[in-house]
Design brief:
The chain has about 120 residues and is mostly helical. About 50% of the residues lie in helices and about 10% in strands. It is globular, with a radius of gyration of 14 Å. It starts with 12 loop residues before the first strand and ends in a 7-residue tail after the last helix.
């Protein structure tokens, strides 16, 4: 099977690069809200991304855009969804170190607990 997804061009920057270049000492609230919105939508829809590396998130115009959707999956089984969601959370957190990682661990803790991932791995 072959599938194509066409989208508008986004003249943004991947999340890892954007965070490295930002002069802010803390992560902006709008970005926190975008990340929470993403994980909430995934939870409510039983959808996982499958490749949560930082380069698959683009920052443009105070929005977080998700790219590289070829591994995205809707799960009919709650058990399989929870397992894949845990992998997505874990992979997202593996992108970060230090204070940035701690910030995202705290931000996403409610989602980790909901999925039964009590202590996000380092």
């Amino acid at each position: 099977r072959v599938a194509y997804l066409l989208t508008d061009f986004i003249d943004g920057e991947n999340l890892a690069s954007w965070l490295l270049k930002t002069d802010r000492k803390s992560i902006p609230e709008w970005l926190d809200a975008e990340i929470v919105r993403l994980f909430d939508i995934m939870w409510c829809s039983n959808v996982t991304h499958g490749d949560m590396k930082a380069t698959n998130f683009m920052v443009f115009a105070y929005r977080l855009h998700v790219i590289d959707l070829d591994s995205m999956c809707w799960h009919g089984s709650q058990r399989k969804f929870i397992a894949a969601y845990k992998r997505d959370l874990t992979r997202f957190l593996q992108n970060w170190q230090g204070e940035t990682r701690e910030h995202f661990v705290q931000l996403l803790q409610p989602f980790a607990q909901r999925a039964g991932l009590l202590f996000p791995p380092n």
